[in-house]
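Working notes for the structural subgroup meeting. M.R. asked for a predicted model of this chain before we commit to crystallization trials. I am recording the input and output together here so anyone reviewing the notebook later can reproduce the run.

Input as submitted:
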Amino acid sequence: MPDFSLEAACGAPQTRVAGLDEVGRGPLAGPVVAAAVVFRAVPSPRLAAMIDDSKALTARRRERAYAALLEDPDVEAALGAASVDEIERINIGQACHLAMRRALARLTDVPDMALIDGNRAPVMPCPVQTVIGGDRLSLSIAAASIIAKVVRDRAMLRLARRHHVYAWERNAGYGTAVHLAGLREVGVTRHHRRGFAPVRAQLTQLGEAARP
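Returned structure, recorded in token form:
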């Protein structure tokens, strides 16, 4: 379970420490979304108990934790995203870093330290500490993963209402059997990432441009 020890080691909450994580690196469709979270005070045991790596939580528990984080006056959260066009132009790794920079830029003030999930540090206007498996270790990174996951899943649900054949409401754009079957049946939308192998293969096979 994540806890506040990494943040405390950086001097939080007296020192302004932001945890950042992104969601949407692997899907075949949709944007990548990042969140930045700052705990202005040591989180209550009740709130801390609700927070975990977003992948380890059920959808219902993620929604509850998301609501609790946004309702807490001592939690500051900000979002950033990179579009499908940006993913295709600069690659998914750089798009993840771009989304993180945008999230951090939307905080009220630049933090003294940013804790980043993973082992690659994006260029930031503050010192950065990377944390492998950070969403399982750091409370602020785990909180960021929850917020980014809920926001991105909701965005994919909205897209699914217009493109129901791909079942994005269930797979969030990942390459499940249903999603791949939809690609073969209907083709590629403007929300698909053309540089990702299954999408690229479908475009090559059909010799078509993206469909609306």
